[in-house]
Amino acid sequence: MAQLGELGIEADLILFHADDRWGFSEMGKVADDRYLRYITARLSAFRHVWWSLANEYDLMWEKETEDWERFAGIVTGNDPHDHLISIHNCNPFYDYSRPWITHCSIQRQDVYRTAEYTDEWRAKWNKPVDIDECAYEGNIETGWGNISGEEMTRRFWEGAVRGGYVGHGETYLHPQDILWWAKGDELLGTSPARIAFLRRILEEGPEGGIHPFKKSPMDWDVPIGGVPGEYVLYYFGINRPSFRVFHMEPGTRYTVDVIDTWNMTIKRREGTYEGSFRVELAGREYMAVRLMKA
Distance (Å, rounded) from C-alpha 151 to C-alpha 72? Predict the structure, then answer.
């Protein structure tokens, strides 16, 4: 924990785990409660800790909803610093409207679509949406661990423009059986550099972050986020337009940046633009356009 803090990494600490080899998932009530009181007293002083009550809570057959609610009360009651807290699903979502939950900790429920639901989940629960398992870049046998770097990067952008947060993981086969997802070591995939590029884009964006727009009928086909009248980010994903006509409110002029999210380039168009205007694009996948008040 101390080393993670020194590296500036937030530690989302899993308290109970369905894939448990140590017996924590099958302790009785007395041991459960004592364990939680101990671990919150021991670790809540760390600035960078988050509490995850469980990884895949619905696969822990010994526990019922009443147990998770009791656990939440113990953790929050013994944490004087009110750290972030949530619970992670495999299949059905937990009830993220519960008052003790600070954010939604989500594993995908659809083979293809996950980040595309971010704005719907924000509206439903009125809480930050953390998609910490959207699948993993890799090449192992199972579908949750063999998406491409392009697809991982696309899911990050889809989630970000819709006002959410997507988590990365990697599961490439390794001759020494070093699966990064379980053992760390060096990342082999192509998405981390692109995710770092996205982070730069977000850090250069509005101080309050990206929020999804209520879209006009003419923008039905693309996710849009930002701050109205100040900063607008369009992400075209798998679509490949060779140009786009933008329809902005008259009276505000914008600079226009064409962003290639895969090749990690930003090209500013000359001049400033107002009202309805056309922007030439590359006809490639994974493009974005950023409009900023001039």
Answer: 35
